[in-house]
């Protein structure tokens, strides 16, 4: 039985689709927080989202005729909705608006694991040599150096800085091994954004976002965003690179047990390299998130 | 009868042939998933199928022969103990805490692997097991309640020869014995045994397979008509409270354990080998390469000896002891009075000489008996196919200890015998070469040699953190003439250390329990954080930069230059 959705989660904006992949005049169906949804785009290109009843994927529809609509936002190339009453605005990614960046959605990939497990994997550097072998890391350079983590009260997000790792091929535009520096932000319980040193321009950073759509407590869809400084690679190459990385994470994530993220500190064994994950778990606990996690017994 | 997570019976969980070397088999019993793997020494391990770090299935991990490596972060767990031996994200630290996966009892017999949910019952052969050369049939998974599967098997018997129902979901049908492996409330596996290998193996396997397939189809049709039973809910045990918080680097003083001297032999001229094993044949605690044990000697002395073993080799520890002519009574007692069959108390292994496994080049330099920790390191690197060079300096060919163990290593092993001091220095200079990124050198040997290597390395541009060393003993004369106060920040105590007494002694007298081992400034066990004050370092454990940082000290020999020291104790 699904857990009752906690009010924090219910009132959040959740990603549901890459906006320009939604067909105009045709129905897409999906699941959000155990709730079936139907989506389409009107002739004006604007997405419309509503609670699905008997609609089927691929049915024709005129968006004008949908009366009972859920709230919709479009941001970072994606469509976002909310099942409750949205309390806050969506988190900012100011870099997205910089004119010389290549912004792209890199696909929506289903994973049989809870959304918080996928966020935690995104924050983790220790698995690079083992899961992304010869791309984001390679043995014997396995060390996770000390880094800093804080929960920013002002922005209500987890922030990890000074994260450094030796990478053989950090990005599509990288040609040799380099120590890359990462900054991670978790501005939303099911979304994370990373900033990494850009191989092409030392003064700027590539931005990669992962937005998780919690379909059920143990299943999610990962929507990936890249906002890059890269003048040579094609969009297809950049997408393929990110999909390769994510394709390597998927089988590991689907072999994690339990599938929900345990918030009890004694459920698993943290090490110093897991500082950001520990901060993330505490932050979820303090917020009172119960969807997709195993709350700490009080 | 409903299934229970705590059912104490033994059930078969795999066929022996499911476990070829270097493979991990995913088993299931009573609602739990199991990672089942055979080590290179033949031992079968049955563990909870979950890495303690992030819950990833260990059945997708890599069987490295003597250790199982998790796919997610490369954590390694030892054969036998399931203790974690290596955390690659922190390659310079020994896993300071005892991280041990949950393991289940195991027995390999009659071509099957047997296990149970707990240790309550010893393994007992099924009635009539002894004296036959059993042959395992192909297993048959069935989506039906295990009790229904037992009943279905019994109904296969002809009327004039009814089935014999044995305890533990076992059914005997004439010659054939069937065991039902309860996987979950609604799932089971039938595992059959024939009393001998049939003449036509393939035809026989096929015959029983067809018979069991028909039975399965009947049972699954019947099960589909009934409501599905509620699956068992396995409980993941919590890790201990000290594992749940982020670790400081601290090694608690462990309990002693009694071991028997299984073997004692002359390994080389002047070196005696001792093999120490558990008295009941259980495995010994997990250790990391470079670790040592304290050996409590019959005359009351305590001495430290490095473990020479390779990965996952926990059925005994092998140490090497030097027959010193001017021995203070430690080695002498071991060499002269301890015999095979004697029992000694040892500490749990401690590692103050950890091996990084993230180096692009690892140079191991041993002088004399200093070979012992480096042999262990070489064996670990060897098993993981990591590159290394081992240089072993001895007086002459006869004093090369552990020769046969060194001969089977695959790395570059160079034995240098009978070199004079200058020649040793020249060789070391050549071996080290200029320092390059991710190069590390490990040295163990006599004090003069260690100093020579440290100076040579420093001259070639090797930073202190790339030069790892372990002294046998502190040859320096300790100056204990100073007197000063110590303030223990966490214990909220101020104590006076008079001349002639050590900080460690004063803390012990005040009732504090503090770890120590060699108590002569060589082993690193009593390492303590210094918060304020200036330290008078007299140990040989810390390197120059660590001493200069004034942030840590060895309380067994070092003292204060200032009137007061504030320690994090």
From TrEMBL, chain A:
Lineage: Bacteria, Pseudomonadati, Pseudomonadota, Alphaproteobacteria, Hyphomicrobiales
UniProt domain Vanillate O-demethylase oxygenase-like C-terminal catalytic: residue ranges: 113-286
Molecular function terms from GO: 2 iron, 2 sulfur cluster binding; dioxygenase activity
Species of the source: Devosia marina
Pfam family, one: VanA_C
Protein's name according to its UniProt entry: Aromatic ring-hydroxylating dioxygenase subunit alpha
Matches recorded under SUPFAM superfamilies: Bet v1-like, ISP domain
Keywords: Dioxygenase, Oxidoreductase
Tagged with keyword Oxidoreductase: yes
Organism superkingdom: Bacteria
InterPro entries assigned to the protein according to its UniProt record, in alphabetical order: Cholesterol_7-desaturase, Rieske_2Fe-2S_sf, VanA_C_cat
From TrEMBL, chain B:
Keyword ATP-binding: no
Matches recorded under Pfam families: Fer2, Rieske
InterPro entries with a match to the protein in the record: 2Fe-2S_ferredoxin-like_sf, 2Fe-2S_ferredoxin-type, 2Fe2S_fd_BS, Benzoxazolinone_Detox_Enz, Beta-grasp_dom_sf, FAD-bd_FR_type, FNR_nucleotide-bd, Riboflavin_synthase-like_b-brl
Domain 2Fe-2S ferredoxin-type: 484-569
Keyword tags: 2Fe-2S, Iron, Iron-sulfur, Metal-binding
Record domain FAD-binding FR-type: where: 252-356
GO molecular function: 2 iron, 2 sulfur cluster binding; metal ion binding; oxidoreductase activity
Residue ranges constituting the Rieske domain according to the UniProt record: 10-115
Gene3D superfamilies, per database record: 3.10.20.30, Nucleotide-binding domain of ferredoxin-NADP reductase (FNR) module, Rieske [2Fe-2S] iron-sulphur domain, Translation factors
CDD domains: fer2, PDR_like, Rieske_RO_Alpha_N
PANTHER family listed in its UniProt record: PROTEIN YIIM
Protein's UniProt name: Rieske 2Fe-2S domain-containing protein
Species lineage: Bacteria, Pseudomonadati, Pseudomonadota, Alphaproteobacteria, Hyphomicrobiales
